[in-house]
Amino acid sequence: MKRNEEKQLMYTDVMVAGGGMAGVAAALAAARNGAKVILCQDRPVLGGNASSEIRMHIVGAANSKRRMALETEAREGGILEEILLECAVRNPQRSASMFDLILYEKCRAEPNLTLMLNTSVTGVQMDGDRIVSVTASRESTEHAFEIVAQIYLDCTGDGRLGMEAGAWFATGRESSRQYGESHAGEEEDSYRLGSSLLFTARNMGRP
Length: 207
Prior knowledge:
alpha/beta
């Protein structure tokens, strides 16, 4: 599709922006409950920080570190637990690429879910304080889309959909007094996380 051609118009019940763990779980839940869902992910794989691109472990209730004697360990439930259990059975070697595939298969197995990889939210059309439609772009195929939904979910890591819709946002680190965080700095600043460096270490038994 050439850039000067019109956007492809798509209609759905629920539009989910962001295919990290939150977006995948939300899209699967909505689709399984009968809603037509479009899931836009701006990367070639699902999982966000937990994908093969970054390989961060999933931190949730199961990582609450309660560690109280004789207390039942916390566990995730629902769709996330379903995914983690399937990964434990099918992916004992803990391959990050295999985890990508499991998430992809979960989404593709849902007839109500349309998965759009490599597709970024680029703007919104508003009517007052409501989103009327979302524009999205797939640079790899030079396709543009206008997505009309009843409900829009921002599951992006950077709040892109909310920002485009004019929602209030802040960047950087808050001061300790803003939310009562004792370990935060006394003054707010603009410091943000930088790029990740991924490496694997192995004990070779000698220096």
